[in-house]
Structures
1.
Amino acid sequence: MHILAEVMTADREALRRSFARDFGREPEVIAEAPARVNLIGEHTDYNGGFVLPVAIDRTIAVAAALRDDDLFRVRALDFGECDEFRWDTVRRAQGWRNYPRGVAWALAEAGHHLRGADLAVTGDVPPGAGLSSSAALAVAAGGAVCALSGIDVPPRELALLCQRAENAFAGVQCGIMDQFASALGVAGHALLIDCRSLDVEPVAFFGPDVAIAVVDSRAPRRLADTAYNQRRQECSEAARLLGVASLRDAGLEQLEANRERLPEPLGRRARHVISENRRVLDAVAALRRGDTATFGGLMYRSHESLRDDFEVSTPELDLLVELARATDGVLGSRLTGAGFGGCTVSLVRQTQLGEFRARILGEYGRQTGLEGEMHVCSIAGGLKV
């Protein structure tokens, strides 16, 4: 896939050329939105809790130009696939097509009048890896469509519309984290997001000696076809049985006092969410004081909770975390994203990245027969049009 980072103007030119070749004219706008890696705070977002993602230098870019009718034509350059729909009669489709369609649907439902457009899409976010390629696609498409149609939607509002598109149109009951990280990311900073109040606070990341290494297990994941929505339902039921609006409002003492009211696995689901919210706040405190050891320890405990209490890990992800734990220079490691496959995120000393790559990928391949892939990520800014 094409890499379209901020400084890589040559690839942006390649996108322009592809658009001109396919549609017979130059694009009027290019919108680019980053993927995200969540450092800690998993499955807390839809429970009104706290998350700590970073936007990364893996992006989806959309080149676009207006048409003189209400038709949208979308070409996914990396897949060699196309889609066509009218924004005022759009219906659900399959796969990547749901995200441009869903954003058009959400904008129209919010009362915005759209103009037809041609769009070309490309990017270097590995699909199905847990880095939220879907949110990046939705935010980039939304940014392009709004710019072309003269719709003034602030990034925060666009992120909420993109979340609605994923929830109500694509059928994945995600929280707001992915869209907020993609639309509102700040270079060099993690984002502490309160998913109830929707307050966002940038927190400066560790210095340049600490790298963010994402390892793709190459174990495929499809959120709509997994237990993701089931976990959300289990959390809602656990909150109801505890007598709270959401698990954000519950504490561990309250959980223990009412354990007999929560049949398993609801008790373990609640314990993960409650303890994970605490870990996020402790991780932010560690980040502010530059305490890499505490931050890394919290990452390991997060993974153990996701593995044992929330049951969203896989043997491949567990192996990657254990290999990281046994490798010099690794400060912490955990699965990132919803789980059920996908990626791990590790904090690694820059000077030992080479050793980390060789050991993790080599041993992982020997034990699983899978060819993992490692990405060293920089923390990027959010949506650019």
2.
Amino acid sequence: MLRMVLQRLMLGVITLGLVSLIIFAALEILPGDACTALLKQDAQGQRLLNCQKELGLDRPAYQRYLSWAGGAVQGDLGLSAHSNKPISSMVADRLKNSLLLGVTALAVGLPLAFAAGILAALRRDKALDLVLSSLAIGAMTIPEFVSATVLILVFSGWLGWLPGIVLTPPGAPLAKFFPEIILPVAVLAMVMTAHILRTVRSSMLEVLDSDYVRMATLKGVPYRTMVLRHVLPNALLPAINVVALTVAWLLGGVVVIEMVFNYPGLGRLMIGAISDRDLALVQSIALIVATVYVLVNLSADLLTLVANPRLRTAVSKRV
């Protein structure tokens, strides 16, 4: 097991290195740089050269990448080329806000998804199953910006119950974001619940159709006991990885939601950094999101290994 953990950690480090390199190369390919974004019409001649020298953009690309990567390893993300502020302080507030949005959506959607998925499987092909499955498919197929727009129209425009956009500044206390985050959380929870519900339902049905469950039924094992002690523990294991991917997506993949609701999170900060050609800031955010993906997936793998005795045995035999 220790060997597997070390292998996954090594793979994670390699992944983070590749992500930073790919982001750097992609931005290098684009025309212009941070100076052209800052100076706009004046980005020419000696003024452009002075700006590039001041920001260190006159150095070869590999030197700039190694300098940034070396600083990131030591916890120094550098300065923003656009605002000349420490990137760590800029990212801290936005990361805190994105975590607030993600954790709240998880707290709402996760119990709902598991409960609905279990009920749908236990009522297979019945009215409840058909309704829940249809709602889940609808939530998965409708784009997030459409769902967000509809919720804003109904609850903010027509009913006037909730604010349609977030006006609280990035550095405000987290409590200040309520009730402005109710609609963004609703959209995120809707999408997350749909994906996890479908996974839980499929896993439950697969286990319910297995031979050992049929044998237990023939032997007269009470249905409730069979579901609680045998079906649920085996059926919920595949959902762990889906939950892990969802957690990572909630942090780095909610750019559309943040843009629609004007939410000051990490996604909006990254969009602004790309527009300003702020290479160091873009790379830092990408690295943070990639780190979350790696850590969350590693945690999911370890949790699956601990919860599944057969996997522990297989790993022990390989080691």
3.
Amino acid sequence: MRGRIPAGAVTPRTACEGVRALQRPDWAPETIDVERPSVARMYDYYLGGSHNFAADRAAARAMVAAVPEAPLMAQANRAFLRRAVQFLTTAGVRQFLDIGSGIPTVGNVHEIAQRHAPDSRVVYVDVDPVAVAHSREILAGDERATIVQEDFRHPERILAHPDVRALLDFSQPVAVLVVAVLHFVADDDRPAEVLRTLRAALAPGSYLILSQASDDGRDETQRAEAEEVYRRTDNPLWVRSRAELTAFFDGFELVEPGVVWVPQWRPETPESAEDAERAVFLGGVGRLGG
């Protein structure tokens, strides 16, 4: 269901007028369209990053106008990722495959994992060329972390990539992270099938970490306006319910407390889990038995 943008509201189309005159930054690969918003660069903007363009900022501001909690959503999701990785290192996991990793910002998986377990190895995967370019700069000199440019929807190519195989040993436990990605993957792209393909490659004791935006309890007008913003990007919004996200953990044993609003997943303090539904993101961690 689609809603109408109120008269006079800021939209990516109106806010991006004049972007064509923008000069391409030195760090922007020539192959990318700086005039079309990217969900990875919008997410970077929500987190206070600087690797975004005027079109991305305009779209992100339009999203905030429609859903004021948008920056809170990104921050809460990032905090969930941090707590989940810390949990996994405590559980003995030393290999991480982060699919849809996005623009490098403070608190990346390799920073968290290697702080707690210096021998941790991390492979990032993203389809956005800006995310890949900046990841390569940040990871230069780190022999235990790398980035490959690939799409979540092609798990067989991810698993067969020589850089993935060089760093990760799939005969040992691997944590697969698909964090803040699934709401950009339509049902027609068979996300459940993709996750089954990834699961089949994992050894017992491996983990799956998922989070995505949910429409549970959301106002229909906000949902429609958020969908309108993201239709201007290459990745339209595809929100799901708690039951739908839980179904993606098929074959995994959910770690307590299960699939919950991300601030409720093993919060550091009771106060940090208050008004958790405002974060909009649901998340969970599953373990592969055997």
4.
Amino acid sequence: MKKNNIITCILFLFVVSSCKTLNTQLSIAEQKLPENFNTSTTDTASIATINWKEYFADSILIKLIDTALYNNPDLQVALQRIEIARSGVRFSTSKLLPKLDGNISAGSTTEYEPGKAFATPINDFYVGLTGSWEIDIWKKLRNQQKAAVSNYLASNEGKNFVTGNLVADIAITYYELLALDNELEILEQTIHKQKEALDVVKFQKETGKTNELAVQQFQAQLLNSKTLEKEIAQQIVETENKINFLLGKFPQTIVRKKEILFQKTSAKIASGIPSQLLSNRPDVREIEYQIAASKFDLQAAKAAFYPTANLSAKLDFQIFNSQFLFAAPASIGYSALGMLVAPLVNMNALKAQFNTAKANQLSLLYTHQKTILNAYVEVVNELSNTYNLQQINAFKKEQTEVLAVSVETATELYKTAKASYLEVLIAQQNSLQSKLEFINISKRQQIAAVKLYKVLGGGWKQ
């Protein structure tokens, strides 16, 4: 007996000493965040702190977003992930508490006695309670619980990330739809003018002032515009349906006002400082909670190498006659047991589990660094894009006004034979192209404002 105790102690010391080689303090080289977004400003004011209802200030768009936040399938899936994580917290917490099981059974067996023709039936009645409790000496269960809590918090941030993306996606698609409406209106106006020009050319052909080639050129230009009109009409249908999909609805007409495309956002562009991305962006916060969970998982994986302390107790009543089940002292049975169980043979499985937890944590640390770098780059890009689009918009607006006048000038000159029909065609085509480009720039400006708001971490707060 003494020899067995010595062997047990040696094995126990071997297990404990092997755990000392398992490093749980992991880190990677990280780049320091710059103090600003390639600008000289250090103002901490940021549009990310503005509620999306105040930032957009468009009643139609706000109503669409409200509907999506209630119906969108992706957001509903994210909410269910939170419920799954919450259940994980409850499960891990329950493992810290003692376990109590109740057992009830009744049966009958037979026993053969010499001299009897038939076996004698023997009844058996059993009622018992069994309790067990794993004492969390090495904090394995407690670390598992903390990991579950961190995963729950990460799932909340994941939902916030989905919310922010959903708000931005609806706003972007909404402005794309408004741009298509304006393009369609411009094409309808252009088609009307091109029909008038075609009538003029036909009349001049009849009077001998021009030839059939001019008529064909004007007619071809008109047909091209009609083709573009139908293509844009199809794009409008698809864009409307895209919004309906985000709203969780079947295809239907989206009520809107196309002139809103040219309205400026009410909020002043303020980016804040890069360090605010750590608290404003849900994707950064989500990965931080995932890293915290991985640290607790790694600690729990290390604790799995240590012996487990278990307490168990049992109280039961068992007798062959049910009426004496709780009455006869002889039917009572009880036991109490304490155990210390240490892993000895299957250490490779525990090492594999530990190495997996270690690799998972390192992977998350690198993902965290990548997420922060990506967030910074996105903000710098959108700030530059917003500034340049403001300049482009001003130039394009002036160009559109000049070319609109040139169409009228070319038409009047053509009527008096001071300009060729080709000059009229070119003027009309340049004017149409410029108007469509101006609408596109206005759309890009609105979308840039949405994207900047999103990449700074806005849009998910209710």
